[in-house]
């Protein structure tokens, strides 16, 4: 009996670690600061709204201040159609933290991850960008990167998830909500892979 329990515990640990690494790849993890080669700065930092939008925005601003790029692209429509778009709220947050207006572009039409990628594509194409850093929540990173890579196949899309936000963190697996997000994303990734709705 004890061997079975130990075996189940090991399997659960492997699943948790595997899911965490799969859902939240971080291409900047090995880079302490912008440099050369794989750690070279990008043409833009793209932050998509949803989940904990403030945490995503703050992480994009942090990367901007570390000089990973001189341009922020904020993407997302209004959650409440009577108020500001998410992108505009993200821009205002960036302005309050000292980012100049001329260094921010907003895209405020997208309501889904696919739409984020489709709408931001026009900015990437118009400016002939070759490399972007994509910022979103950890649970959302793999799917967001896949959507963007599909829309801009000639552009290097570097993933950089928020390490912790109000919905996701190192201990995500201790809550039903964490599992709901993880399994939900796996299903959406599966639908993306077979060309379904996302």
TrEMBL record:
Top-level taxonomic group: Bacteria
Residue ranges annotated for the DUF218 domain, each copy included: 43-172
GO CC terms in record: plasma membrane
InterPro entries: Cell_Envelope_Assoc (IPR051599), DUF218 (IPR003848), Rossmann-like_a/b/a_fold (IPR014729)
Pfam annotation, one family: DUF218
Alphabetic keyword roster: Membrane, Transmembrane, Transmembrane helix
TM regions (residue ranges): 5-24
Name listed for the protein in its UniProt record: YdcF family protein
Lineage: Bacteria, Candidatus Saccharimonadota, Candidatus Saccharimonadia, Candidatus Nanosynbacterales, Candidatus Nanosynbacteraceae
């Amino acid at each position: 009996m004890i061997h079975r329990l130990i075996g189940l515990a090991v399997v659960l640990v492997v699943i948790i670690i595997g899911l965490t690494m799969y859902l939240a790849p971080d291409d900047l993890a090995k880079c302490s600061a912008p440099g050369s080669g794989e750690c070279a700065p990008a043409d833009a930092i793209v932050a998509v709204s949803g989940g904990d939008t403030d945490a995503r925005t703050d992480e994009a601003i942090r990367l901007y201040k570390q000089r990973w790029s001189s341009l922020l692209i904020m993407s997302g429509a209004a959650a409440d159609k009577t108020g500001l778009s998410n992108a505009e709220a993200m821009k205002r947050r960036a302005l309050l933290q000292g980012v100049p207006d001329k260094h921010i572009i907003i895209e405020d039409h997208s309501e889904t991850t696919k739409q984020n990628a489709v709408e931001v594509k026009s900015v990437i194409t118009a400016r002939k960008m070759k490399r972007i850093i994509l910022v979103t929540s950890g649970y959302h990173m793999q799917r967001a990167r896949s959507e963007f890579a599909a829309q801009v196949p000639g552009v290097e899309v570097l993933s950089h998830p928020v390490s912790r936000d109000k919905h996701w963190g190192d201990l995500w697996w201790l809550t039903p909500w964490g599992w709901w997000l993880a399994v939900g994303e796996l299903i959406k990734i599966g639908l993306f892979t077979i060309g379904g709705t996302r």
